[in-house]
Amino acid sequence: MHSDFLVIGSGIAGLSFAIRAAEHGSVTVLTKGKPMDSNTAWAQGGIASVLPKDLRESGDNVENHVADTLDAGAGLCDVDAVRTILSEGAQTIEELIECGVNFDAEGDTFSLGKEGGHSHRRILHAKDTTGREIAESLIKTARKNKNIKLLDEHFAIDLITSGKLGMVSEDRVLGAYVLDENSGQVHTFRSDRVILATGGCGKVYLYTTNPDSSTGDGVAMAWRAGATISNMEFVQFHPTCFFNPAATGAEARSFLVSEAVRGEGGILRDESGYAFMEKYDERKSLAPRDIVARAIDHELKKTGAACVYLDVTHKPTGFMKDRFPNIHKTLLEFGHNCEKDPIPVVPAAHYQCGGVMTDIDGRTEIRGLFAIGEVACTGLHGANRLASNSLLEGHVLARRALEKSLNLHPVLKPSPQAPEIPEWEYGDTAPPDEMVVIYHNWDEIRRLMWDYVSIVRTSNRLDRAANRLSNLRREVRSFYWGHQVTPDILELRNLVATASLIVDCALRRHESRGIHYTLDFPEKSDQLCVPTTLRRF
């Protein structure tokens, strides 16, 4: 199967790229599960952008947004990448509106929100389901385009590169091997322009705000293909995930209470009602996420409490129902009225700040392979992502990546001289007969990462995690080659690879910076203010 552009992932980055690329050739978009199973669709808060002067908050400008991003990134941001991406924000908002996204407004003026780390109101939102609004609009637009083939339940197994085929003159991408989840067949999808837009890896951890699809697939595939991976030690923990031991089901365990709630006046309190954030930062409950998450972690360990509380009971009656209708409704379904009682919350893994190392145009070292969105490490986020910068980055990088991909060479069908690609190499085709062991390994990885590689780390815990993950990689490898391939086995394979990359990067950073905090090296080091990079040779 051939297409001019092969996009792996159906969030804001992948679909934005596909819609633009369809003007230049055929596009295949692969998504495991369904297109709405993405971090984009789950995003509540909004998208950060400085708008034209007549629409922005008085006194705000792009340089203020740049300064806030650099401050949150703790010295590790690429300044040029930050300024380039943020300066294209207004164009992104205009294009999303053209795709049918309806941001909240009062008359001709957008209703701008404020979140932790931002000095001004610059967050555009669609109530508290901004991501869903964006995802539905993009999917609808993509499905209408005759040049886009959107394939649900197609799981990309591995990238195909010339280097893997022994062609040493140039390492370039040739396509991907893909599992059709319905038929169980593996197909070869050929393209010399492959765009990884697979999102993040929150399911590496026991508690996460991410959907079940976030298993680090793109990072693991790029790693196996020989791309450089950078800054994976920086996994952002969202401070306010709903905590309710009585609730059951994945949605209950991973329901995010948006940072925008704090932006609208929500206050973090301990069991006694004390607003403890004033002890940790002058911005109090609106401090950047790394500071707030560590503060909550410290309070929980100090007091032994199971959770802290996000208090909005001082807001007028009906405020939460109007401004955050999905949060209000969902909490009621879980038996909690947030207008009467403070919301119990705990931190949970939320966003991958590192990823496949790219330039400002999404290019990797492998010719024709691009990575955009959360899977990529462009230098925008540094050591800690500023709230609501991620949707903006995904859209901007889609635009920039397309331009560079068109410069590779003209869009052409495979020539007779194109390299022959072998069929995918199967392991044993016997059906899995030990699924309980596979699920046990899945659970062990996530508990291991939560216990040893979480908000606060030590070298001893990281060493223990590295040793156990080494054994788990061998066990998973035997499952991969010893059983008929299934989505569960593929996700487990990617999960253990991504977890290992996080630990390996964390072991190399002998300082505390941004989200990475270790008791053995509690201070920043100017000498270590450089990206962590790993490459498989």
Describe the structure.
The chain has 537 residues and is of the alpha/beta class. The chain has a domain at 235-351: Succinate dehydrogenase/fumarate reductase flavoprotein, catalytic domain (Flavocytochrome C3, Chain A, domain 1). It contains 16 helices and 20 strands. The strands form 6 sheets. Strands 7-2-1-11-18 form a 5-stranded parallel beta sheet, with helices on one face. The chain has a 4-stranded mixed beta sheet with strand order 19-17-12-20, with helices on one face. Helix 1 runs parallel beside helix 6 (130-144) and helix 14 packs parallel to helix 16. The radius of gyration is 22 Å and the shape is globular.
The fraction of residues assigned to DSSP E strands is 15-25%
The global form is globular
- CATH topology type of the domain at 235-351: Flavocytochrome C3, Chain A, domain 1
Largest sheet: 5 strands, parallel
Helix content: 25-40%
Write out the strand line-up for the largest beta sheet, numbering strands in chain order. 7-2-1-11-18
CATH architecture of the domain at 235-351: Alpha-Beta Complex
Which superfamily, in CATH terms, is the homologous superfamily of the domain at 235-351?
Succinate dehydrogenase/fumarate reductase flavoprotein, catalytic domain
**Rg for CA atoms:** 22 Å
pLDDT below 50 for ≥5 consecutive residues: which ranges?
A: none
How far apart the termini lie comes to 29 Å
CATH class of the domain at 235-351, anyone? Alpha Beta
Helix count, DSSP H or I runs of 4 or more residues: 16
Alpha-beta content class: alpha/beta
Average pLDDT works out at 91
Number of strands: 20
